[in-house]
Amino acid sequence: MLTIKRYVRAQSLDEAYALCQKRANVVLGGMLWLKTQNRTVDTAIDLCGLGLDTIEETPDAYRIGAMVSLRALEQHAGLGALTQGALAESVRHIVGVQFRNLATVGGSLYGRFGFSDVLTLFLALDARVELHHGGTVPLAEYAARPYERDILTHVVLPKLPGRVAYASQRNSATDFPVLACAVALRPDGVCCAVGARPMKAQLYPGDAALLAGGVTPQTADAFAAAVAQQAAFGSNLRAGADYRRGLCRVLVRRALLACKEG
């Protein structure tokens, strides 16, 4: 059972950051995973009054507030066009619409959960996170860091040319993914992220030379095999490491061909 001793609706990011420095205090976010825990929280910090629930478009990027819901990401026309539907595909299996109306992008990225579809896709999109104290950091670097008591305020998605595709395998429609992958095919190369390994998502370069002649079923399979060989996998109740490795080859190949067909 979750026990909260004190609730504070922060009036500024400075106040939220100061409160967050105490280990027993917690930022609420969407409060979906938090309420499943058995713990006592001294102070629950609510960010909902700080204007972090908007998606801003600039000529070069989309700047997404940490309190934007996954449902808002799913339905945003600009983000859908930028990712050719991959963003909506990455979140549509997450529990249900009611859940996605509450779950936030900030919570998904700050948690850096191994099962996170959002982290997997945003890594391939070359995203950056904005931290109140730590400044702007590439998501790939942030994901590799240990947890720190900072406030994640925004995530920035650059408007990069190219095609994007997302693929995942689940044992049932709304379950956590057994494996997830995102591929961004750019004029200057390819970017591939593999998540739910079951460890948190990570970027893998594969062997770009294998795609030098273009994406075909044969070159896509060779590149996918290289990624599957590079990636590290583990076992849990959903699948074993060897199964995930074989699945990785299939999903990366499918994502590459989807980018080519697009």
UniProtKB/TrEMBL annotation:
Molecular function in Gene Ontology: FAD binding; oxidoreductase activity
Taxonomy of the source species: Bacteria, Bacillati, Bacillota, Clostridia, Eubacteriales
The protein's name in its UniProt record: FAD binding domain-containing protein
Keyword terms, alphabetized: Flavoprotein, Oxidoreductase
Superkingdom as given in the UniProt entry: Bacteria
Ranges of residues in domain FAD-binding PCMH-type: 1-162
UniProt cross-references to Pfam families, sorted A to Z: CO_deh_flav_C, FAD_binding_5
Family matches, as InterPro entries: CO_DH_flav_C, CO_DH_flav_C_dom_sf, Diverse_Substr_Oxidored, FAD-bd_PCMH, FAD-bd_PCMH-like_sf, FAD-bd_PCMH_sub2, Mopterin_DH_FAD-bd
Secretion signal, residue range per the UniProt entry: none
Gene3D superfamilies for this protein: 3.30.465.10, CO dehydrogenase flavoprotein, C-terminal domain
